[in-house]
Amino acid sequence: MLSRLCLAAGTLLTAGCVGSGDDADDEDEAPIVDAARSLENDTDPETWRDVSEIRLDAYVGGWVGVEPAHVDRVENPTLVLFADRSYEITIENRDNVKHNLAIWDADGERVGEHATDVVVNTGTTETLAFTATEEMAIYICEHQPRIQLGDLEIVAE
Fold first, then answer.
1. Do 55 and 67 form a contact (C-beta atoms < 8 A)?
2. In angstroms, rounded to a whole number, what is the distance separating the alpha carbons of residues 40 and 42?
3. Neighbours of 50 (CB within 10 A)
4. Could you give the domains of the chain?
5. What is the pTM of this model?
């Protein structure tokens, strides 16, 4: 969590976003997005072993998991990926605000060209196909980088 907060804070400076700075990442808080029911999901690698496709709904308040079932209605779920495996993450705009999904490393840099095009209208989708690498640390919306981000846990096989 600390790495996510530091990365998000750095993003605010580079993206020109403004925040109060006194928000705490409190695990006891409720989700921000009404469609979400939880802030935590199963991160046991065995639960993720057969996953290759992930679906997320995009809201200004955060990502909300749709598929696989163990991320359903989880806000900014942690995604467990296996190094050197192929994945597809599909995002759907749910609030008529600009969203994209990009994969960043721990230094706050986009990993290669791993980003979707921007989805603007409700119901619009984009899919990012990629191979997981150990440098991948978070997935983020580059338009709401402070609140729409989730951790990537990369498992070496």
1. yes
2. 7
3. 7
4. 2-19+36-155 (2.60.40.420)
5. 0.83
Structure tokens belonging to residue 125? 């989708």
Residues 32, 19: Cα–Cα separation, whole Å: 16
Q: Which of 101, 102, 106 is nearest to 134 (CA)?
A: 106
pLDDT interval class at 29 (50, 70, 90) = confident
Is a pLDDT exceeding 50 seen at residue 49? yes
On whether the CB atoms of residues 53 and 88 are closer than 8 A, the answer is: yes
Beta-carbon contacts of residue 36 (< 8 Å; ≥ 6 apart): 62, 64, 73, 74, 75
Q: What is the pLDDT of residues 79-108, one digit of tens each?
A: 999 999 999 999 999 999 999 999 999 999
Residue 16: half-sphere exposure toward Cβ, Cα within 13 Å: 1
CA angle 73, 131, 119 (to 5 degrees): 50
One-letter amino acid of 36: A
Matching residue, tokens 């997005």: 33
